[in-house]
Amino acid sequence: QSALTQPASVSGSPGQSITISCTGTSSDVGGYDYVSWYQQHPGKAPKLMIYDVSDRPSGVSNRFSGSKSGNTASLAISGLQAEDEADYYCGSYTSSDPLYVFGTGTKVTVL
Amino acid sequence: QLQLQESGPGLVKPSETLSLTCTVSGGSISSGSHYWGWIRQPPGKGLEWIGNIYYTGSTYYNPSLKSRVTMSVDTSKNQFSLNLSSVTAADTAVYYCAGLYCSGGRCYSNNWGQGTLVAVSS
């Protein structure tokens, strides 16, 4: 079971839009429409931002959106704000143990 | 809303066993809606899902750690536990417990403990 692949870093200026990719295989991302995304600020536990590819939990800004095509999922953040600076991880069910796998993580920097 | 809290030693000696417990409140660990998982994050690195346990006792371990991991559940105390044997400095990490909602491949985790730092050092 290997981690899903994400870019190490993405940056943008305030107000801009950025996209983070998450590439897996047909055993995880490509096989199920259930990718999730997590935001983690330093010293904090991860926070669920997107589930089921594109759904947002209550309280999560609509500036965050998700999509998927084939084995690659994407998280888009529009109207980038300073508070969006954090690490972001994708996650997916996997048909092999331990049932769930994370991406390698992407550090988002607001310039 | 489920709340999870990790507990256990913050320092473990090399070659010994790391033992952590997660106490769940705000819901029953036996509800059947969640798998109960352990995740770790070495300093400055990414998240690694260690494994999951269902309330029935069924376990699902990360193959990279399977030979050293044992998870258990105590439904009477609404707790689940992690044992990681033969630890080395590479096992130094923040350890999180989490509830993983999973139904037919639809999985996500919306309930996390605050995390506990476990250092492996003599």
**Structural class by sheet pairing and helices of chain B:** mainly beta
Question: How much of the polypeptide of chain B forms β-strand, as a percent range?
Answer: over 45%
Low-confidence stretches of chain A: none
Identify the quaternary structure here. heterodimer
Radius of gyration of chain B: 14 Å
Report helical residue fraction of chain A: under 10%
Backbone structural class of chain A:
mainly beta
Using the alpha-carbon principal axes, give the shape of chain A. globular
Computed CA radius of gyration of chain A, to the nearest angstrom = 13 Å
Largest interface: A-B, 30 and 29 residues
- Report helical residue fraction of chain B: under 10%
With helices defined by DSSP (H or I, 4 residues minimum), what is the helix count of chain B?
A: 0
Amino- and carboxy-terminal Cα gap of chain A: 35 Å
Number of helices of chain A: 0
Largest sheet of chain A: 6 strands, mixed
**H/E element sequence of chain B:** EEEEEEEEEEE
Please name the defining characteristics of this protein:
heterodimer; A: 111 residues; mainly beta; 3-stranded antiparallel sheet; 9 strands; 42% strand; B: 122 residues; 7-stranded mixed sheet
Nutshell version of this structure?
The complex is a heterodimer of chains A (111) and B (122). Chain A contains no helices and nine strands. With 111 residues, chain A is mostly beta strands.
Q: Could you explain the architecture of this structure?
A:
The complex is a heterodimer of chains A (111) and B (122). Chain A has 111 residues and is an all-beta fold. Helices cover 0% and strands 42% of the residues of chain A. Chain A has no helices and nine strands. Helix content of chain B is 0%, strand content 55%. Chain B has strands at 3-7, 11-12, 18-25, 34-41, 48-53, 59-61, 69-74, 79-84, 93-103, 106-112, 116-120. In chain B, the strands form two sheets. In chain B, strands 2, 4, 5, 6, 9, 10 and 11 form a seven-stranded mixed β-sheet that branches. Chain B has a four-stranded antiparallel β-sheet with strand order 1-3-8-7, with no helix packed on it. In chain B, strand 9 (93-103) and strand 10 form a beta hairpin.
